[in-house]
Write a structure and sequence with these properties.
alpha/beta, Rossmann fold, five-stranded parallel sheet, four-stranded mixed sheet, binds guanosine-5'-monophosphate
Length: about 230
């Protein structure tokens, strides 16, 4: 059986990393694709675990050799998903989870329309700004400019939400984890999945929670949804 490809995207500061690690501890058989990046390791990050840290030259050579399923430049660094990660998961019949930005997600959706895409959004610009400030202190990047740029970037990413199959608002961590788990299990056809909960997270269901969060960013769901 071929595995399912899950794509998760979220603006920086949406709490995605915590959500994804909670999901992985709750759901079995979900392989995580370790991306390539030209950015430097942060904190306790280890080469080959969080990312394959690489030089710009190597990355560009890999791009030229068509080694990437998708790639994008995010905040001045390259990031990419190796084709081999997908091949590996497929050969093992396992589901693969990609934690990638909107530009990369759109490339994958075009190539593999059956991929299950999930967008995680922060509940409001105020909460996002608070999280970004908190994070910038942790990363020792206290520049107002970096925060302002990430906020602008988040607004831009929200414009592409209708291209995702699911959208969930990360206002309460436990709730968002339950929703993410429900989506994964339901897509797998696992009887343990809460189908109603997963359905409420469909972007096309335009839940009051989703519309409320988008409205706070002065955004709405536009166009058709998959
Ligand atoms: P960070 O540097 O904070 O780990 O990640 C920055 C952004 O790059 C996040 O939005 C993350 O999802 C995205 N990202 C990580 N790996 C990839 C990848 O392989 N491809 C793309 N397009 N984005 C990625």
């Amino acid at each position: 059986m071929a595995g399912i490809l899950f794509i998760i995207s979220a603006p920086s500061g949406s709490g995605k990393s915590t959500l994804v690690s909670r999901l992985r501890s709750l759901v079995e058989g979900l392989e995580f694709s370790v991306s390539y990046t030209t950015r430097l390791p942060r904190g306790s990050e280890i080469d080959g675990r969080e990312y394959h840290f690489t030089t710009r030259k190597t990355f560009e050579e890999m791009m030229a050799a068509d080694d990437f399923l998708e790639s994008a430049e995010v905040f001045g660094n390259y990031y990419g998903t190796a084709v081999s990660a997908l091949e590996h998961a497929r050969a093992a019949g396992r589901d693969l989870l990609l934690d990638i930005d909107v530009q990369g997600a759109v490339q994958v959706m075009q190539k593999l329309p059956e991929a299950v895409s999930i967008f995680i959004l922060p509940p409001s610009p105020e909460v996002l700004e608070r999280r970004l400030r908190h994070r910038s202190v942790a990363e020792h990047v206290t520049s107002e400019e970096v925060i302002a740029r990430r906020l602008r970037e988040a607004q831009k990413e929200l414009d592409r939400i209708s291209e995702y199959r699911y959208a969930l608002v990360n206002d309460q961590l436990d709730k968002a984890v339950d929703e993410l788990r429900a989506i994964v299990l339901t897509e797998r056809g696992d009887a343990a999945g809460d189908r109603a909960l997963a359905a409420s997270c469909r972007t096309s269901s335009r839940s009051a929670r989703l519309l409320g969060a988008l409205a706070s960013f002065d955004r709405q769901v536009v166009g058709s949804t998959p």
